[in-house]
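Hey, sorry to bother you again with one of my protein questions. There's a protein on my desk that I can't quite get my head around. No rush at all, and the record is pasted right below.
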Amino acid sequence: MSSITVLGAGAMGSALCTPLIDAGWDVRLWGTWLDDHLLDACEAGKPHPRTNEPLADGVKLFRSTELDEALDGADVVVMSVASVGVPKITEIALPGIVKADALWLTSKGFNPDQEGKIQLLPDAIRRIAKEQGYEELPPIVAIAGPVKANECAARKPTATIFGCKDLEVAKRYARAARTDAYKIEATNDEVGVEICAPMKNVYAIALGISDGLEEGTGIPHHNLKAATFTQAVREMSGLGVHLGADTATAFGLPGVGDLEVTGLSGRNKVYGVRIGRGEKPAEALAEMDRLEQTVEGVPAASLAEKLVEQSGLDIETDLPLLGAVIKILNGTTEPVQQVIAKAVLPRES
């Protein structure tokens, strides 16, 4: 039996434990100092507060002060914390990570280095490791795709993707974690997976705005939402290809698939709905923070803007929908419907 340690006891970290248990792994779930109340509920036999599903039987729980114990002898380590926490958790967990055979990554986002250069999370983790004196890391497997944590935890049919620069590594772990309900596709397109993962959160805000416009006016905006979806996929693909990704990745599980599920019910979509029906972006975000509903698309949008600029693309012409979301998040007084429409409706040729 292989041992796997999941770092982060939030929705996705706890949900991933279910297929891992079903696939025969020895599973340890470590919670950060922000996860105590989540672990309290699980230890009391209650459903996980973020998924409303019980934690899989057999998962061993570890508190934030028990990191060394949680990592001891782990064959695989899973980074499953919010992107903003990845640098800190990487630093403190590196002694255990470097002893593992692989590092899996469910976190989604971008990370700036000390000079402000925006990096994809795997590259940021590799950089942090070198800064801490570790020249080599085990292979990183980026996990993405259309996975709602509550459905994964409930053993509902789920498709995901494991992306690693070494395709054989991705295939090996895809086979090792696959269950009757949790099916995995393998790819060597780490860049494509890691571009789509945070960008779909940004674009899900725009999809939510269309739904919010319907809630606020009583008039459906399905045409606008469809055009928004199309433009979002086009931009994910274009940015990915520019940075070395496979064109097809954005049209598969990490792009189209993940955008679809996130645009239906994810927290980024809910945030967009609030804006679409008339709430101010800052006020809506504050309320979701109060409810412990992290909106990853907000920090991802500003970091993506810098990434685009650094890569030599022009937001206005190459990624107008990204520009529209940023404009809205910055509090434009222009009607949000108009801002989105300008970005996604066909322009005169």
